[in-house]
Structures are given as structure tokens and as C-alpha cells.
Give the backbone structure.
Amino acid sequence: MPKSLFRLYPPPYEEVSLKGLYLRELLNQRGSTERPFVYANFLTSLDGRIALEDAKGEPYLPKSLTTPDDFRLFLELQCQADCLITHGGYLRALSRGRLGNILQIGVHPLGADLLGWRIRQGLSPQPAVVIASASLDFPMPESIRKSGQSCYIATGEGADPVRVDFWRKQGYEVIFAGQGRMVEGGLLTSHLGRLGYRTIYLVAGPHMLDTMVRESRLSLLFQTITHQLMGGEAFSSLVPGPELGSFGHLRMVSLYYDPVAPTGAGQWFAQFECSGHESAGWR
Ligand SMILES: NC(=O)c1ccc[n+]([C@@H]2O[C@H](COP(=O)([O-])OP(=O)(O)OC[C@H]3O[C@@H](n4cnc5c(N)ncnc54)[C@H](OP(=O)(O)O)[C@@H]3O)[C@@H](O)[C@H]2O)c1
């Protein structure tokens, strides 16, 4: 039987199918090259953890935060983008087998139907990939070239010129989108718009989320909140930077309830509009 959820907001309260829930958002139609539509998706516990740290101080994603239902929705969001932003840390984790591959559409059995959906929407089979990195020290996965994806490396003006040269010699375009070593959300989003991208899915971590929100470039935040108090003395939360003030004030657009998640705790699937986004000054 197809999995269903309960819509808690907006009214009316209603049972809805999980499959297709986020495809109906048609995010791929919301952006333009002048104002790319940037969205992100995070999993958190009720006490705000997105990751815990192991004994060596290495962050990891606890298994109990993830469920197949959440992953299906992640894939529905991913297939609507013409550009994915990931980062050096993910590529290092991927090469060590600590995280699975999320760089191509239609490869995971839970999202096998999504390549067809994407093509029916008039999108290219695979999105471009942008790798944000300050160190420029990461392995490039074979799958990007094999899938014919455009691939860019984004860094700051202060990046090591030897590393910049290394990637250019391998044929990659390096985008400078920050004054120091870090990538800044505003500069990167505007640059990607000039390259022709309209719908950008941030599949990076808390630092990229921080800069996108702080610079009013995030349009929508999707958040899965699992009903568990996780604890753990060392942890990461959504935004690592200083106090955000009104940049962090969000408006809830929808809220769905999944009472029977396989972890034994229920979960909410929430969607928030970022209030600062509309008034952001575009460069
Ligand atoms: N629960 C969730 O939904 C969720 C989502 C994402 C991540 N996580 C977890 O949270 C923990 C920390 O996240 P993370 O390691 O993915 O991300 P992160 O700590 O935000 O960033 C990791 C790496 O990304 C690059 N990077 C990030 N922001 C950058 C910027 N503005 N400019 C240039 N480079 C930038 C840097 O790579 P270089 O070192 O190459 O410079 C950095 O070391 C991990 O355990 C991860 O699994 C959880």
C-alpha cells in the first residue's frame, strides 16, 4: 500500500500520498537566471542536532535521523534542480564510503521514476554540480564525468593558487565567489545565474546553509524534524555562524506528519520560506 502522511498545515487536515508530495511543488519553475531559486533540505532531531561527533571529534550523521521516507522526499527535491551545490567535505566522505552517492538523478531504487519526471519537465537528464571548497583538497568522483554533468569548483579569492591551477589543468572551471578562502552565498548564486542556472539545490552542510541564509539567498528550507531527543555532548546544528537576527526568521509554508517512521519515532516534514529572500539586493 502506498505510504501516506497527514497534512497539518495549510488546512484542511488531510491524508496525502508521500510519493509525489514535493514533486507537486514544481520548484523547477520558480527561479530565473536573474534570481535563481535556491533551496535546501535538512534533517534534525527535536533538540536541534543535525550531526553528532565521534570520539575523534569527527562529525557523523546518526542513522536514526534518516528514514527511507525522508530520502524519497530528498530525491524528489533533488530531481527538480538544474544545479546541485555540494562541497569538498562530502566528496572526501564519499570516497571513504562514509556517505552514499547523491550526485545523479535516477540511480537510487527509491527514485528510479524521477529521471523520467525530470525529462518530462524539459530538464536536462542530470544537473550540473558545484563543489564548494576552501582547501580545494578533495577527490573528484568518476560519476560526474561519466554522467556528462557540467562541474564547477567554487572557492574564495584567497584559495591556494597551486590548487586552483591543479583543477584548471584537469579542465574544471574554478569560480571565485568569496573575498577570503570561503565561498559566499550571494556571489556564488549570482555567478550561477549568469551561467544560466535557475533552480539550485543546496546539498551541502551547515556552513553553506549559513552563508546562503545570512546573505538572503535561500528561498526555501525543507526540514525533516524527527521526534527524538538525541542528546550527545558534541554536535552540529543548522547554522554554525554568529547570531542571525531577522535573517533567520522564516514563514512556514507546509507541515506534514508521518506517525509511523521506521525508527519508532514519528517525524514532521516542514517547509519554510525565508523572509529576507524577497527583499535581497541582487548583484
Ligand atoms: N542532518 C542533515 O540534514 C545534514 C546535512 C548536511 C550535513 N550533515 C552532517 O553535518 C556534519 C557537518 O556537515 P558537513 O561536513 O557536510 O558540512 P560543513 O561542516 O558545513 O562543511 C564541510 C566542508 O565543506 C566545505 N565548505 C563548506 N562551506 C564552505 C564555504 N562557504 N566555502 C568553501 N568551502 C565550504 C569545506 O570544504 P574544504 O575542507 O574542502 O574547504 C568544509 O570543510 C556532517 O557530519 C554531515 O554528515 C547533516
